[in-house]
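Bug: token stream looks shifted between consecutive jobs. Job 1:
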Amino acid sequence: MHTDLVEQHQFVTLNGFGTPVFSRWTYVAGDPYVVTLAFRTQRGEWIDWSFARDLLIEGLEVPAGLGDVRVRPDLAFTDEILVIELESPDGYAIVEIRRRDVEKFVDATCQVVAPGTETELLDIDAFIAQIIEV
């Protein structure tokens, strides 16, 4: 069965606290350049962060990102942890997640849409029509 959606749920450490936070990774083929990392704040309510899949892929190996989202291996303590820094006008957060979990998620997204083939899934005419209607 082929799917155009990848979703992965897990607990992450947020801001160094010992209490893990429930998170959800999502990738949809219809928006092939983007991954979304969401954190559950309370039952049924999530805070979403969307960013480039390429940023996540690069951040598995070396520090990546210059803006609101930065991804890097935690080489100071262990290469088994991936660090994701999130920054907005409302605050700053550091997420620590098992690197292997992110690798599994990235591998699943690549099964859905191979890197370098994203443009084949974009409907540029529909995008332009949407912008014009705004």
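Job 2, same session, no restart:
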Amino acid sequence: MADDAARLVLEDGTTVAGRGFGAARAVAGEVVFNTAMVGYVEALTDPSYRGQILMLTYPLIGNYGVPEARGSGSIDGPFESDRIQPQGLIVQTHVRTHSHASAARALGDWLAAENVPAVEGIDTRTLTRKLREVGTMKGWLLPGAAGEDEAEAVDMAGVHDLVSPAEISRHGEGNTAILVVDAGAKDNIVRSLLDREVRVIRAGPAHDLAALAREADGVLIGNGPGDPKDAKSLIAQIGALIRDYPKPVFGICLGNQILALAAGADTYKLRYGHRGINQPVQDLLTRRCFVTSQNHGYAVRDSSLPKGWEPWFVNLNDGTNEGIRSQSAPYSSIQFHPEASPGPKDSGVLFDDFLRRVAAMKAG
């Protein structure tokens, strides 16, 4: 719907007119914003955005184009999955003439090929301020004269099933094996482990995680979309696992929330979530600070942590939980993304810390 009239409608009745590009399709979803200046390819392929309408606050989007599509079964970057995940995209200015050595196509062409609508000409600064004041709202991206009743939406209660792998996959040939639990995990989690010469077993909540965990030297619970409380089968499997698993368990983003719920703690929805690459967090043990990449709308409630568990990291902007750890078992998790993509790689050392624990316990 290039250069055709399009509009964004919010659940409070606000209507904003713009110009459409990408696919001519009406969609609905939770409207969220990301403050990163770069990384739209990584953001658009992040499964944590499945079912949402993503607004990018940086005013020029598309200026470095999109790389060539990767082959089937590949986990090559900068893509974080094999498809565009959000329902739609909102930008201030869509740059049609891209320039980059690795660019193979324009952003609008990529969106159209994957049947994802987008709208430009939106005052993203004003819209971001509104979402910060009111909180995240449902919205509709509508081309032309399309009505809200024509918009397609994702059933968020079942979103983890949509982004989880149907088959178990194996990557690498290292001596250390890590089970990556994938309910929407970014591919760069796997790439980060492979870079550290780790053999990866990747499986979703529908698989027998306990059996796979026995085969591995440690478990990493990856990120993903939606309300963590909807992932009931995954919570149950992790809960059973941590009752007697003698090896390290490490969670990232959704994995932090799943580990907390499995341990008996509670989670809640944030007003407008943390989505960007400049979120400051502090390690409560060492007092070291990191600037981190984040993409989540839910958080762990510190006061609900059961005996034997403690907060590990805190967000320095709003004081919310950014990680937990067991005081008696090798189980810990973080709310931010050490694999970045996009974002600063400052906290990538936490992969090394996890693998050091794995190696120590493997050595007895």
